[in-house]
Design a protein that fits this description.
The chain is an all-alpha fold and about 140 residues long. Helix 1 packs antiparallel against helix 2. The N terminus is likely disordered.
């Protein structure tokens, strides 16, 4: 029994120590598993309790989205109406500008007619006075 039996005797205590370590690790793993299971169960209960509020919040959000969509549709329709009115107003402004240009042309024509009438009146006066040369100068400058 010399060195071999001492070696085998020395090897057994570490083997028991490994068994003790394995037991300790196994027990720790069991405790961790129990803690994890308890946490999962608490989380599940919490989620189940929060579910009705989440469903109510989703319903509220859906109703708000429907209301918002309706408001947006109303705004789009209002914008279309405003666009139509703006187009009609622009048409009226263009028409008014054309009338203004025609009125300006009429005004210029009337001024020319007034000048011509004055020139003819002066020429007729000169002719009636017998000043034919003066009447010609009135008509042809």
């Amino acid at each position: 029994m010399g060195a071999a039996s001492k070696a085998s005797a020395g090897a057994q205590p570490p083997a028991q120590s490994v068994d003790a370590q394995l037991y300790t690790l196994l027990r720790k793993l069991e405790l961790i598993a129990e803690d994890t299971e308890a946490e999962m169960q608490a989380t599940t209960v919490s989620l189940v309790r929060a579910m009705p509020q989440a469903v109510a919040d989703l319903d509220t959000l859906q109703d708000a989205a429907v209301d918002l969509r309706g408001a947006m549709d109303g705004l789009v329709e209002e914008l279309r109406t405003l666009e139509t009115q703006a187009g009609a107003s622009l048409g009226l402004l263009v028409e008014a500008e054309h009338v203004k240009q025609r009125m300006l042309a009429v005004s210029q024509t009337l001024e020319q007619a007034q000048t011509l009438a004055q020139t003819l009146a002066a020429a007729e006066l000169a002719i009636s006075n017998g000043a034919l040369l003066s009447a010609a100068e009135q008509v042809i400058p």
